[in-house]
Prior knowledge:
The chain is an alpha/beta fold. It has helices spanning 22-34, 47-53, 57-71, 113-122, 143-170, 189-201, 227-248, 265-277, 289-301, 303-318, 320-324, 341-345, 349-356, 367-374, 377-383, 385-393, 395-416; strands at residues 10-15, 40-46, 78-84, 98-102, 128-131, 138-141, 175-179, 208-210, 255-258, 282-285. It starts with 9 loop residues before the first strand and ends with a helix.
Amino acid sequence: MKTPNKLGKYSIGTGDRFAHQAKAQLQACVQALQAGVEVTPVWNKSNREHLIIGSQPDSVRHAADAAVQALGWAGSYFCDADHITLQTVDRFLPVCDFYTIDVADAIGKPAAPEAVEAFVARHAGLIGEIALIGTSERFSITEETLRSTAQKYLAAVQQAGAVYRHIAAARDNFLPEVSMDETDTAQTPVELLLILAAIADEGIPVQTIAPKFSGRFNKGVDYVGDVAQFEREFGLDVAAIAYAVEHFGLPQTLKLSVHSGSDKFSIYGAIHRTIRRLDAGVHLKTAGTTWLEELIGLAEAGGPALALAQEIYGEAYAHREELCAPYATVIDIDANRLPAPAEVAAWSSAQFVEALRHVPHAAGYNSSFRQLLHVGFKIAAKMGSRYLDLLEANEAIIARNVTQNLFDRHIAPVFLGRAQ
């Protein structure tokens, strides 16, 4: 099935580690449409996740296409080659139509001095004060601002241009995102504006851009930081994008992408207020939250399914250092709060579910337990058919959890403004 080449104003990235929940995820978008808002689904899976699971990119495409056919979805939908680089993109080219070009590793690497000076000269017209629509704040840009931003980010944007052109040489009808979120320091709104100028210089028709925001965006748990400060920065970023679209010739559909966006409940109100106030779009990227809903569904099912969920925790606990290492910058696990596997093995379905389900004020909720299992999908992958057979045997209860989580906890507060 050919995908219409339109991302839409609102979109959501949905990860599906084991390619079994696409229909349940799409059902959340169906419910959104019934509630009066169209949210475009984008199924995302990174090269690292494919390597861990042992899957191929076409598995994402097959699952998405099957879900669209089963539910009669008439809107746009996409498959995202997530966090790709020039070294990893080729395996995605036959099947993906959305590309998250990750250049975070190139931030801070020096561009050629003549390229930096050419950037400064090309954008000298930005020097001075810039008024932004929708905010009373003004940007002050000096020649040094141009130069220092180019020295920090120009090489990364040039790398994005090289990846974009590589993809464009191999296929048409795709959407590019530029991702700079997996780095140590948040970009300021002024830096974002100048990064967008550089992206325009590279000729990238960028549809979404993923900066790093202030605060902590840990995997699978709530935002940690100053929500008022986030709302201010988010609004300025949206205003910077509007300025860049008007002045740099970037696509009218360009919007912010919020990475590690799942479960960031405390900022969803801020995001909704901002996109309504400024009439802006947003892409909310979720991923591992669906895998955790699979575990919740298995635990709710009880019997052998609960036993397998308990076994997965025991193995994750035994290999926690290995599992956590690749995600060290985006998890905060208190080892003292991790229950012993023997204790978890004695839990009831209700105890396991309450510890894992992201209801922060629930008495039994354990964020360290949740984060360890979030990064522990490798354990389930090694189980192969033992895990997948139980997913299929308990499809109804798992699907209910997946859909409710995506719609009630994510889509409704961000896109509809409904409090949880």
